[in-house]
């Protein structure tokens, strides 16, 4: 016991020394009495940069802390005030600063030009050695040139077209089709960027965007990914101290041991005044050369104390982290998941466990720029794993017993499903503060984004709408007839229907789904669902059946026919719900008045067949609604009459990722192996479930 206390006391002493030493090092890297960082942000702000009056050398180096939304609430980020660019890192020794810089986007076939002049007249330039100019997108010719005639002309980057989306390549490198990377001219401050179709390519590309952007070369090569119109990438800026402000430095700019500053400037500019390129601490000294006595020597004894204290701190922190993972595992339902799987004797596929560090890196620490969407159960982020594959990571927003049960339920449900029209669960993680689910990434968003005129550049055709309806119906038929325990989705709606790179359906969001015995209903104590899609019979009786999913599908079918929202305040009170509005229009023979223009133009007699099918799905009596098997058969019959059976068969089975033993026969039992827990195996917290 005494030995343990002695070791603990020694570790505390070393840790205290370590803290003091690091505090000393921190104090010499910034101007006294000035904030070292924005509150809650770990980006260090050393002099000559500064936060607040008197803390920076000139107006160009003023930092302000702007409030922004992040995955865990409000946060304050450092921003260079004159440029309104977020600071990621300030590198004193290199005379550089890393900032977030926006992507240039064009989603049309017309040329798009962007002028950027925020650095004009400043002591900052875009680093030619640290940055690249990248063009991405099918049939894209992007160019960049300086607006200052004294700087070299510019750069052009053309990306070819292979009729596939960039995301299908899993973003492993830029040495491929649809991506071009090149160097940028030297000493650029203001420039013009232009995106246009390649002159040697006459075919127009529909439904895809083209991108051009500056990006830190090293970061991009390690974090290659498909951009989107709202994203920003790290860019390196070179900076210097000009002769008009060098007198404000508290050190002698010529030589003030143990620091020194080298005179120089930007070679491409013919300016009459010279610049101080950068200051450095002399060899053997460390700190901030721009601050008086900022460069300090480190003694051997202090080094030993620092190393010992740091090692002790790491050991204590590691034990604390292990205990924290155990705590999160229990709180996030690891035991509940084990209990549900074992008690229900469910055979499931193997689900990969993910380390929390890997998912943090994949999402850039759950950066708000990676956010794909938010829902009642959590927030979904886009991420790239270490093998280059793109994934969607669902992170719970609030931890309470009800949401925890939904999270565990989604793991159990999705682990039983193996169907090409259902989003695939790749794994989960329970060792973090909030539980995480990892899915395959579906690049083209939700069905709702393509209806209601939300995406005017790529409205779905009638054939696409038929295919989407058939895919959703087939997925629900599979769920309802799966093995001995049918699965009721319970929240079918257009925002839960995702579209892949070929605009084929992936049904998602199984948080409220239930697996029940055949010929049983699910009695609930609380009605759950989305207004506009909710089965009226379920709302009155609290009994959810497979016909409740049929009703929700009927609403989606009407959305495909009309292009209108399930609930709209633009309609009258009695027709605010799309289902009742559609039924009334059919009963009054006004169907043509509410159909989408494209459906009217491209659809033929089969539009009436689909409309009548939707009406039957929306019958107020669940017993009078068709089953999803019948719905699926009728939709395939419509497609067959429109395209011909042979063409349809070839299209529906070209991927060959699942096989039916007979057309619309009972599905065979699902595959089964073992589901392990989502905790690092090194911590010995596995969930062995017998298969």
Q: What would your notes on this structure say?
A:
The strands form nine sheets. The protein has a seven-stranded mixed beta sheet. A six-stranded mixed beta sheet has the order 21-25-26-24-23-22, with helices on both faces. Strands 6-14-9-12 form a four-stranded antiparallel beta sheet. With 691 residues, the protein is of the alpha+beta class. Helix 1 packs across helix 3, helix 7 packs antiparallel against helix 14 and helix 13 packs antiparallel against helix 14. The N terminus and C terminus are likely disordered. It folds into four domains: 53 residues, no CATH class; 144 residues, Jelly Rolls (Sandwich); 117 residues, Phosphorylase Kinase, domain 1 (2-Layer Sandwich); 206 residues, Transferase(Phosphotransferase) domain 1 (Transferase(Phosphotransferase), domain 1). The longest helix is centred in the middle third of the chain and has 32 residues. The two termini are 46 Å apart. It is globular, with a radius of gyration of 30 Å. GO terms for molecular function: ATP binding; polysaccharide binding; protein serine/threonine kinase activity.
Give a quick precis of the structure.
By secondary structure, the protein is an alpha+beta fold.
Layout: helices, strands, pairs:
Layout: H1 2-27, E1 50-51, E2 62-70, E3 73-80, E4 85-91, E5 96-102, E6 104-106, E7 112-116, E8 124-126, E9 131-136, E10 140-146, E11 154-159, E12 179-182, E13 191-197, E14 210-216, H2 217-222, E15 232-239, E16 241-242, E17 259-264, E18 275-281, E19 285-287, E20 295-297, H3 300-331, H4 334-344, E21 352-353, H5 356-362, E22 371-374, E23 378-384, E24 390-396, H6 401-416, E25 425-429, E26 436-440, H7 462-480, E27 487-488, E28 497-499, E29 505-507, E30 514-515, E31 522-523, H8 536-541, E32 543-544, H9 546-562, H10 578-587, H11 591-594, H12 597-602, H13 606-617, H14 628-643, H15 645-652
Parallel strand pairs: 1-2, 21-25
Antiparallel strand pairs: 2-3, 3-4, 4-5, 5-15, 6-14, 7-13, 8-15, 9-12, 9-14, 10-11, 10-13, 16-18, 17-18, 19-20, 22-23, 23-24, 24-26, 25-26, 27-30, 28-29, 31-32
Helix pairs in contact: 1-3, 4-6, 7-9, 7-14, 9-13, 13-14, 14-15
């Amino acid at each position: 016991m005494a030995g343990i206390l002695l070791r603990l006391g020694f570790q505390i002493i070393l840790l205290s020394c370590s803290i003091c030493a690091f505090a000393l090092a921190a104090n010499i890297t910034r101007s006294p009495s000035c904030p070292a960082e924005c509150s809650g942000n770990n980006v260090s702000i050393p002099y000559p940069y500064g936060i607040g009056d008197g803390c920076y050398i000139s107006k160009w180096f003023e930092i302000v802390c702007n409030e922004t939304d992040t995955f865990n609430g409000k946060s304050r980020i450092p921003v260079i005030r004159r440029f309104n660019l977020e600071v990621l890192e300030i590198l004193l020794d290199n005379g550089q600063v890393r900032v977030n810089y926006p992507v240039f986007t064009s989603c049309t076939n017309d040329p798009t030009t962007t002028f950027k002049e925020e650095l004009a007249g400043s002591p900052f330039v875009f680093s030619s050695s640290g940055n690249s100019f990248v063009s991405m997108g099918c049939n894209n010719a992007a160019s960049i040139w300086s607006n200052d005639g004294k700087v070299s002309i510019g750069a052009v980057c053309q990306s070819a077209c292979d009729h596939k989306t960039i995301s299908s390549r899993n973003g492993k490198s830029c040495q491929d089709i649809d991506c071009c990377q090149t160097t940028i001219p030297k000493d650029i401050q203001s420039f013009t960027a232009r995106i246009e179709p390649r002159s040697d390519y006459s075919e127009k590309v529909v439904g895809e965007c083209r991108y051009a952007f500056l990006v830190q070369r090293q970061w991009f090569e390690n974090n290659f990914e498909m951009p989107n119109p709202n994203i920003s990438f790290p860019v390196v800026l070179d900076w210097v101290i000009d002769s008009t402000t060098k007198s404000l430095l508290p050190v002698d700019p010529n030589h003030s041991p143990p620091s020194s500053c080298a005179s120089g400037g930007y070679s491409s500019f013919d300016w009459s005044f010279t610049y101080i390129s950068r200051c450095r601490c002399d060899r053997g000294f460390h700190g901030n050369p721009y601050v008086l006595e900022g460069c300090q020597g480190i003694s051997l004894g202090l080094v030993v104390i620092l190393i010992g204290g740091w090692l002790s701190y790491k050991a204590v922190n590691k034990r604390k982290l292990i205990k924290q993972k155990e705590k999160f595992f229990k709180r996030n339902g690891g035991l509940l998941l084990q209990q549900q799987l074992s008690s229900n004797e469910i055979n499931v596929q193997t689900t990969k466990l993910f380390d929390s560090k890997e998912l943090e890196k994949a999402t850039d620490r759950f950066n708000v720029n990676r956010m794909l969407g938010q829902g009642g159960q959590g927030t979904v982020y886009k991420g790239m794993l270490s093998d280059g594959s793109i994934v969607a990571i669902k992170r719970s927003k609030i931890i309470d017993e009800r949401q925890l049960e939904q999270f565990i339920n989604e793991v159990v449900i999705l682990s039983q499903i193996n169907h090409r029209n259902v989003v695939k669960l790749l794994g989960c993680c329970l060792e973090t503060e909030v539980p995480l689910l990892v899915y395959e990434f579906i690049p083209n968003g939700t069905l709702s984004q393509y209806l209601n005129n939300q995406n005017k550049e790529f409205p779905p055709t009638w054939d696409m709408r038929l295919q989407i309806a058939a895919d959703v119906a087939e997925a629900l038929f599979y769920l309802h007839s799966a093995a001995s325990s049918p699965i009721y989705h319970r929240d079918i709606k257009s925002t839960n229907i995702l579209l892949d790179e070929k605009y084929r359906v992936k049904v998602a969001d199984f948080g409220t789904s239930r697996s029940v015995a055949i010929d049983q209903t699910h009695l609930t104590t609380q009605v759950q669902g989305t207004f506009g899609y909710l089965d009226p019979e379920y709302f009155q009786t609290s009994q959810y059946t497979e016909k409740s999913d049929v009703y929700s599908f009927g609403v989606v079918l009407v959305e495909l026919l009309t292009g209108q929202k399930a609930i709209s305040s633009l309609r009258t009170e009695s027709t605010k719900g799309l289902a009742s509005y559609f039924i009334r229009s059919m009963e009054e023979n006004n169907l043509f008045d509410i159909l989408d223009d494209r459906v009217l133009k491209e659809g033929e007699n089969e539009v009436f067949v689909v409309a009548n099918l939707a009406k039957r799905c929306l019958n107020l009596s669940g017993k009078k609604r068709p089953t999803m098997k019948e719905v699926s058969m009728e939709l395939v019959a419509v497609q067959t009459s429109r395209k011909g059976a042979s063409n349809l068969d070839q299209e529906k089975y070209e991927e060959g990722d699942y096989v039916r033993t007979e057309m619309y026969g009972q599905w065979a039992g699902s595959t089964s192996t073992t589901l392990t827990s989502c905790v690092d195996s090194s911590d010995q917290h596995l969930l062995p479930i017998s298969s």
